[in-house]
């Protein structure tokens, strides 16, 4: 019986499928170690049953990954397409850029040509002006010494400045020659008469910046000044102390106060005061270099009557109400004129009080007169009145009173 057992087992093994065969073979082998084959099978079944859900979740994950892969592929395609579009746009932009720089080059060339032509035209116009001056002078009554001198001076000035500008000749002798001519032209009101000399002088008294050994004097006429402003300027200037070319001095009640940018720098003790001034600081009313744009004014002081007159022409940068001057700009001018007046009367002062009544608005570009008169001085206090009227005096624009208090230099330092 025992001998037939292996055969029986061998027959059973022959009937089992191969996977069970190996399992059975193992369990049978283990059976020899006393394990129970049924429980083994059950464990395996359990394991197989556990693998089912795992497989399911793996399938789900696999599906998700496949979807993500598809999405990524789609994104890749989209990106590739946009890269192609971008490259196309880049090429177009590069073409446009080169076209633009080409046309810019062309424009620049045209601009340079235009500039050169304009320069030529300016030179020829200057020559024409010079010729015209000569022609005018040919008609002048040469029996009159002053007319002869004026012709000579105007032409001389034109020639010198023309030559200097052309050659950029800033040598001291050129500067001195121009300055000397200008000084004579400016200080001879008698030369302003006859054969449109006013016009000639007003266009010539503008000293070009490169010739200025000193800071620009803003109180001198410039091309932006209106005929009314010029008329008033000539009126007061002709009554000023004057130095003529013959070094004769003419006495007048008025003094024209030069601006010299910051007059303090050139005043007695100004060296110390200039130390506390910032190098970039500019007097508020004289900080725009474009002529006619903001505050155009000149102050005359009457020594005998102890009063000041200011001729003021407000530029377009001072607009307040449309077409009219800003109240703050008017206040600034009143403070400036009365402050200058008080300084001449009482030395170093500061504004302590300023009362203003605005009666009639000032149109932009019009010329007005500020008249500053001394009310009274009381100890350290200088009381000044100021009236702003139209150029012909018919309209009162503004009225003001100002109080200035005398201070010491140390007070100024400590302010
Ligand atoms: C070339 C271009 C010129 C341009 C000019 C421009 C001028 C300016 O804009 S200056 C700038 C604006 N002003 C300032 O910054 C000033 C600032 N204020 C100060 O420094 C001081 O307050 C100052 C000097 C006015 C007075 O101070 P202080 O020196 O201590 O004097 P204090 O004793 O208070 O006053 C002196 C007298 O003035 C009178 N006073 C002072 N302030 C005022 C005032 N606002 N209103 C009326 N009275 C006054 C006092 O009552 C006193 O009178 P009293 O002697 O009869 O008793």
What's the gyration radius in Å?
49 Å
Based on secondary structure, the structural category is: alpha+beta
Straight-line N-to-C gap: 133 Å
Shape: elongated
Q: Which strand order do you get reading across the main beta sheet? A: 3-4-5-7-8-9-6
Average predicted local confidence, pLDDT: 77
- Number of distinct helices: 10
Q: Which molecules other than protein and nucleic acid are bound?
A: octanoyl-coenzyme A
Order of helices and strands: HHHHHHHEEEHEEHEEEEH
Helix content: 40-55%
Low-confidence stretches: 1-33, 166-172, 189-213, 244-248
Would you report the number of β strands? 9
Summarize the main sheet.
Answer: 7 strands, antiparallel
Strand residue percentage: 15-25%
Question: Secondary-structure blueprint of this entry?
Answer:
Blueprint lengths: L4 H11 L2 H14 L5 H103 L5 H23 L4 H16 L9 H8 L22 H11 L4 E2 L5 E2 L3 E4 L12 H6 L19 E8 L4 E8 L12 H20 L2 E10 L8 E12 L2 E10 L5 E11 L2 H6 L1
Antiparallel strand pairs: 1-2, 3-4, 4-5, 5-7, 6-9, 7-8, 8-9
Helix pairs in contact: 3-4, 4-5, 4-6
Octanoyl-coenzyme A (CO8) binds next to helix 9, strand 6 and strand 9.
GO biological process, one term: fatty acid metabolic process
InterPro entries: HotDog_dom_sf (IPR029069), THEM4/THEM5_acyl-CoA_thioest (IPR052365), Thioestr_dom (IPR006683)
Family: Belongs to the THEM4/THEM5 thioesterase family.
């Amino acid at each position: 019986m025992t001998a037939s057992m292996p055969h029986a087992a061998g027959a059973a093994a022959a009937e089992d499928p191969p996977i069970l065969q190996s399992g059975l073979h193992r369990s049978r082998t283990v059976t020899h170690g006393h394990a129970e084959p049924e429980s083994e099978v059950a464990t395996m079944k359990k394991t197989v049953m556990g693998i089912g859900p795992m497989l399911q979740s793996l399938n789900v994950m696999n599906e998700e990954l496949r979807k993500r892969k598809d999405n990524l592929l789609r994104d890749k395609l989209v990106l590739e397409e946009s890269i192609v579009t971008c490259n196309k746009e880049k090429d177009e932009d590069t073409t446009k850029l080169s076209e633009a720089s080409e046309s810019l080059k062309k424009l620049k060339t045209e601009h340079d040509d235009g500039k050169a032509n304009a320069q030529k035209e300016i030179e020829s116009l200057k020559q024409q002006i010079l010729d015209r001056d000569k022609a005018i002078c040919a008609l002048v009554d040469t029996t009159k010494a002053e007319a002869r001198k004026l012709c000579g001076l105007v032409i001389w000035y034109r020639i010198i400045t023309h030559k200097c500008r052309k050659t950029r000749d800033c040598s001291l002798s050129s500067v001195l020659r121009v300055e000397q001519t200008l000084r004579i032209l400016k200080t001879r009101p008698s030369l302003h008469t006859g054969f449109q000399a006013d016009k000639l002088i007003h266009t010539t008294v503008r000293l070009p910046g490169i010739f200025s050994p000193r800071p620009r004097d803003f109180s001198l006429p410039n091309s932006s000044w209106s005929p009314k402003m010029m008329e008033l300027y000539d009126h007061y200037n002709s009554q000023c102390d004057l130095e003529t070319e013959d070094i004769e001095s003419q006495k007048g009640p008025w003094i024209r106060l030069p601006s010299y940018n910051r007059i303090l720098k050139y005043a007695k003790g100004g060296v110390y005061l200039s130390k506390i001034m910032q190098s970039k600081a500019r007097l508020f009313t004289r900080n725009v270099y474009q002529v006619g744009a903001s505050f155009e004014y000149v102050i005359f002081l009457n020594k005998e009557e102890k009063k000041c007159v200011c001729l003021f022409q407000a530029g377009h940068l001072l607009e307040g109400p449309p077409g009219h001057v800003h109240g703050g700009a008017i206040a600034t001018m009143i403070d400036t004129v009365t402050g200058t007046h008080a300084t001449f009367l009482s030395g170093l002062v500061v504004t302590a009080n300023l009362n203003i009544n605005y009666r009639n608005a000032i149109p932009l570009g019009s010329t007005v007169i500020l008249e500053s008169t001394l009310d009274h001085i009381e100890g350290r206090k200088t009381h000044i009145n100021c009236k702003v009227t139209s150029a012909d005096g018919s309209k009162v624009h503004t009225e003001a009173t100002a109080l200035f208090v005398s201070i010491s230099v140390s007070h100024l330092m400590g302010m």
